[in-house]
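Re: folding output
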Amino acid sequence: MNATAKTGTTQSAFGTAGPEVLESAAALGRDALEKTMRLTAEAAVRACRRATAAGAAQLEAAQALRAKMGDGGSENLSAVSASSEAAIAGIETYLEKAIDCTRAAADAGIETAGRAMSARTLDEWITVQIDSATRMMNLGLAQSAELACIVTDTSTRCADPLRARVEDTLRAS
């Protein structure tokens, strides 16, 4: 017999305080997710700026050295410069994707909190949690694969100019 049949009133599976408790828990969860998302995004932006600044400084130093060296060795420096540019672009792409991943995880968490608040029975609430765990696992796996592809692509783009220069040098010998 359900709570409505016994008392004539509608209650959740969590009792009379259930909706308030769930709403408070969801609000706390939302606040925590939003703060985490904001802090992670800010940290990623700071890291991206530092990496970009360091890469730009390295590139400028290499270009200044190249100008001093004239033609002798300029091909080597060109290869290093191209490799550095690829590394900077790869880091920026990786960090942008990491920020997107953080946002997606936070959005999924907020959606789960909303769905959990609307659960009318303990079974519905458990189903929401199981669905959420499955979605988060699948999301994490997909995002990890995307980030791994970015790293692989960046590594290849960094190595290609250096490899080509070594091959040219070996052919000329």
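--- second protein (sequence, then structure) ---
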Amino acid sequence: MKEGFNSRRLWLKLGYFLAGLTIIALVIIGVTWIWFVQFVDTYQQGYVFNTRTGKITTLERTGYFVRTPIVEQYHTVDLRPMQVCINANQRVLNCKLVQFNAKGLDLFLSWHGRRDYEGPGTGGSRKGGKERTTDFSEILKSYAYEGTGKIYPFLSVVRELKNEDAK
């Protein structure tokens, strides 16, 4: 005996097809977003390294950027002021409020290389509820307390804090 047209089975197959199509579309959108879209926040200076030419280009704006994977590598530098301190035995001896100056980006990158330079309070710089220093803040601290008095174009000392003002 031949069965007739079963609309319930048709709707079930259509539902499975649409669910599968939706999952595939979401995976494609996610992979595209991860590979082709880069975000530079308002407190960051972004720059692009072109792997074909070796040229570094400073980004003029913040926000979302569509990139070419493998050819372009986007990196950022934190522009927010950060406090760097000289400590001894859990006692603060001296602190300075320093800020990265984007005008000296090329010199900084030639000395320290290309990568993301994040300040304290971002990414993985919190451990156990206590803010810890980052490689970037340690780099800026070494230039802020360098004893020769040389002025670096990538570093601005916003304020020198006395022992009473620090933390």
